[in-house]
Structure formats: structure tokens, C-alpha cells
Design brief:
Helices cover about 10% and strands about 55% of the residues. The chain is mainly β.
Length: about 325
């Protein structure tokens, strides 16, 4: 379940946050000239509202088209940009997603609060599901909400907590697909959990960093008493670092880990690498490593080399 939620949030959230880079918040106040009788033209004020079409493509959802409306603001000079966005997409796999995303920073960036509400229907077409060599088509109905609060304790270090609630149903698109899902013990689940987070963030810009590093260590303890059908735990450790070089080029690395305890098969750790279809490979534990070179093409344009096709099989701890 967490695969689809995080995949949808990433697609919708990235479009919103990238747009925010091109739409900084400015004051609408006019300026009065200090001298002279002719008044100088006031600088054009930029609206904090963003209305734009969205486009994305990935192995999980195919090619997606949609739209996004967002409001971007800064609560004070020291805080990061805050964004509130509503986005919807329809994909070439006949999947549909609607999401509300809020990411805030306030009180001189002493506090950070994020929230996501997602609903949608995801259609999957796996060539080699869970490494069994068997193709599978399935349809997932997803409703989820999650929120995280972080408090800056010292320097670039934050501590906080998070709350997650999901309702996930997984069915096959044919009787054969249903038989495969039943044989693998995959049928979806309801879950609700709470957890702690330790976070370090020294990036110069959250959405398009050129230097700094991020460490995100967190867990979620899912319990039936909250809103679930299973008791299990998930632990994550994610590290990303960025180095600027040349004329605006950036070199980056990412190392991700996820461990599960007593999780149902549908909630096992997914492989988080570009080129892999999210949810096609699951295991009790997962670790991955990526590197990227981002080339500056123009003032607001950059590009990265294409990744080679992903191998048919990956190794994860089962």
C-alpha cells in the first residue's frame, strides 16, 4: 500500500513543488519614487497562485495528464516556501488520482508540518510479479491520509512524529489474476499507525538543491486499535547528498532502506529505484543506492542522463 501512496504523492507533489520554484512570492506593494516628478513604473507583482497542466510518465502509472492548482507563500523571511496544492491526474493505464498536498514551514523554519490526502484507482500491469516469473494485472482502490510534524532542535536537526491511515483494496482484473493474488496472500488491508522521525536538512533549496544533505530516519507502528486490520511495523532510513560543480551542475547520491516486522505481504518493502515498476518487487527488507549527475542546460533548465533498463530481477530480503 505504501508503494502506491508514496508513488502518487511523489508524482503530484513534484509537479507542485517544481512549479513553486518558478513562482516566487512577491509583495504587491507599489514603490514611490524618491526624486523627480515622473513616477517610475511599479514592478509587476507575481501572483502566489499557480494554475497549470501536469504531465508525467513512469513505469508504474504510465503516461499521466492532469491539472494542478496551488497557493505558494512564505510565512516569514527565514522559513522555507509553503505550498498548498490540489492535483488530479488520469493516466494511460486508466488509473486516476486526486490528491491534496500541504507542506508548511513557519516561525523562522522552527516548525515544519506536512499533510497529504490521496484517493484514486490504480491499475497495475506487471510482467514479473514478485520475481515469480508470472505476469499479473490488478486494480487497487486507494484512500489514504498522512501527516508529519517536525521541530528544529539544533542547527539543521529536527525531531517529530507522524500519523498514517489508509484503506487499500487489491483485486485482479481477471479470474486468473485473482487466483494469483490469493495464492500469494495479497488482498489489500486497512491500516493506521503512528511513528517518530529524526530529520536533518542542510539543503540550500528544498525542491531543487545544489548543495547540502538530508537524513530521514522514521518508523510507523501500525495497530488494529488505531484503524487497521494488522499489527506490524515499518522502519525507514533515507540519505541524500548534493554537490554543486562547474557552471550550475549538481552531483547527487541517494541511499534508501526499509525494514518491516510482521507486515502482511501487501505492505512489504518495495524496491525504490528508477526504472522499476513500483510494487512489482517486494520483500521484508530493502536497500538501494543511486547516483545522479544533473547538467545545467539554461537558467531554469537542467537534465540528467537516462538510466539503463532495469534488470528483470532484483534481490531483496524475504
Amino acid at each position: 500500500m505504501k508503494v502506491e501512496i508514496r508513488g502518487a504523492a511523489r508524482i503530484l507533489g513534484t509537479a507542485c513543488l517544481t512549479a513553486a520554484l518558478g513562482a516566487p512570492v512577491h509583495s504587491a506593494e507599489t514603490q514611490t519614487p524618491a526624486t523627480g516628478t515622473e513616477s517610475a513604473p511599479a514592478p509587476a507583482a507575481r501572483s502566489p497562485w499557480i494554475l497549470m497542466p501536469t504531465f508525467s510518465t513512469n513505469p508504474k502509472l504510465g503516461t499521466a495528464f492532469g491539472g494542478m492548482a496551488a497557493y505558494v507563500t512564505k510565512f516569514d523571511a527565514q522559513s522555507q516556501a509553503s505550498i498548498f496544492a490540489l492535483s488530479g491526474q488520469y493516466t494511460s493505464t486508466d488509473s486516476a488520482i486526486l490528491a491534496f498536498v500541504a507542506r508548511t514551514s513557519f516561525r523562522q523554519d522552527q516548525h515544519r508540518l506536512s499533510a497529504y490526502v490521496i484517493t484514486g484507482k490504480i491499475k497495475n500491469d506487471y510482467d514479473d510479479f514478485l520475481g515469480t516469473g508470472t505476469p499479473l494485472k490488478s486494480e487497487d482502490d486507494i484512500r489514504a491520509a498522512l501527516t508529519r510534524y517536525l521541530y528544529r532542535v539544533k542547527g539543521d536537526w529536527f525531531v517529530g512524529g507522524q500519523f498514517v491511515i489508509t484503506n487499500y483494496q487489491m483485486v485482479g482484473q481477471s479470474e486468473i489474476d485473482d487466483d494469483i493474488l490469493d495464492g500469494l496472500g495479497l488482498s489489500g488491508f486497512k491500516s493506521g499507525g503512528v511513528g517518530l522521525s529524526v530529520y536533518h536538512d542542510s539543503r540550500d533549496v528544498q525542491d531543487k538543491p545544489s548543495k547540502g544533505w538530508v537524513l530521514n530516519a522514521n518508523n510507523v507502528v501500525y495497530r488494529e486499535a488505531i484503524a487497521g486490520s494488522n499489527d506490524f511495523e515499518v522502519y525507514r532510513l533515507d540519505y541524500r547528498s548534493f554537490w554543486s560543480h562547474g557552471d550550475g551542475n549538481v552531483f547527487g547520491i541517494r541511499q534508501s532502506n526499509q525494514w518491516t516486522v510482521d507486515a502482511p505481504s501487501s505492505a512489504n518493502a518495495p524496491v525504490r529505484l528508477r526504472g522499476y515498476t513500483g510494487g512489482e518487487y517486494l520483500g521484508q527488507n530493502m536497500s538501494s543506492f543511486e547516483i545522479e549527475e544533473r547538467y545545467r542546460l539554461a537558467k531554469r533548465w537542467s537534465g540528467a542522463p537516462l538510466h539503463p533498463p532495469a534488470p528483470r530481477r532484483v534481490r531483496s530480503s524475504a
